[in-house]
Design a protein that fits this description.
By secondary structure, the chain is α/β, with parallel strands linked by helices. It is built from ten helices and twelve strands.
């Protein structure tokens, strides 16, 4: 095989899966899928056998899964959050990024990412000025607009979209909910994490006011954003923060922690910034204010566009020889 090959195993409703769907469908270059089995997220996948690739072939991955046997591979590293995970789990990520990922990136001489926050983190991690770190940005589905149906609820609710990983900081929202009244939480999480959210809500005594939602498409998610008093995004660290973008694009403010730079850049005044990521009373006050006085925010214009992102990715792959 020669030309541009794509590791097209990145699928799903999560951030990288959605990024892959939007970008791959817009590439202006002819490409073929590698047709690999298994998961690109396994460290052992990095050393797998590949189809017979010509020396000039370029492999593109819309995620961070390295393939060390590819002649040249361009990765999209969305963030380096895994390198901040707790011990001892962090050890395997340090080995994986320090080994296969760094090797692939340096050999390609180019790596893509989705925000300037992530670009700066990748440059610090690589410590190699010969590698061009390209911020291709991110896009937002056309479904996320203030116009359209909205969720109708008997009680005001705040919306959380994400997962239960520690850096998402869902716990502060549950603790805040416990010191409020008349407000519900709707948590959109992967189906496999639904029970964890319910159990956490039960520990905080708020299970009766937490609705867990999974498996929604963009149209349904947009309805949930529009119907919310606010979206809560208490993340401690993000490479981009897609739920924040989707929320403001839908006209709904975002309650967030000021110290999470990537999210703060996206929100850009379209929602209250908390000074303390873990102060449940500060979060509770912001949630109460949002429920008592709902307001719409103006969506960003022209900044986050999938066509623009796919164009930068296409141009970068052309430079890499794909």
């Amino acid at each position: 095989m020669s030309g541009l090959l794509v590791d097209d195993r990145y699928r799903g409703a999560h951030g990288i899966g959605r990024y892959a769907r939007e970008v791959l469908g817009r590439l202006d270059r002819d490409w073929r899928g590698l047709e690999l089995d298994g998961t690109p997220y396994s460290p052992f996948d990095a050393f797998r056998a590949l189809p017979d690739l010509a020396a000039g072939s370029v492999v593109y991955s819309p995620g961070y899964g390295a393939l060390v046997r590819a002649p040249r591979q361009v990765l999209t590293i969305h963030d380096l959050i895994q390198l901040e995970s707790p011990w001892p789990g962090r050890a395997k990520f340090l080995a994986y990024y320090g080994g296969p990922v760094r090797r692939v990136v340096r050999r390609a001489g180019i790596v893509l990412t989705v925000s300037e926050t992530s670009a700066e983190a990748i440059r610090r991690w690589l410590r190699d000025d010969a590698v061009d770190v390209v911020n291709a940005g991110n896009g937002c589905s056309a479904a996320f607009t203030p116009d359209g149906p909205r969720e109708v609820a008997s009680d005001p609710y705040v919306l959380f979209v994400g997962n239960v990983r520690a850096h998402k900081n869902l716990d502060v929202v549950l603790r805040a909910l416990a010191v409020t009244s008349g407000i519900r939480l709707r948590a959109v999480v992967p189906a496999g994490e639904s029970d964890q959210v319910r159990q956490a809500a039960e520990r905080h005594g708020v299970e009766a006011r937490v609705d867990v939602v999974s498996g929604v498409d963009d149209a349904r998610l947009a309805e949930l954003y529009r119907g919310a008093a606010a979206t809560v995004m208490p993340s401690l660290l993000e490479g981009f923060g897609l739920p924040a973008l989707e929320s403001v694009a839908s006209g709904t403010p975002v309650i967030h922690w000021a110290g999470c730079r990537a999210v703060a850049e996206i929100v850009d005044g379209h929602g209250p910034a908390m000074t303390d990521a873990h102060d449940a009373h500060e979060w509770a006050a912001a949630m109460t204010d949002a429920a008592a006085s709902p307001r719409a925010v103006d969506p960003p214009r022209g900044t986050y566009d999938w066509d623009r992102t796919a164009g930068i990715v296409s141009a970068t792959l052309a430079r890499a020889g794909g």
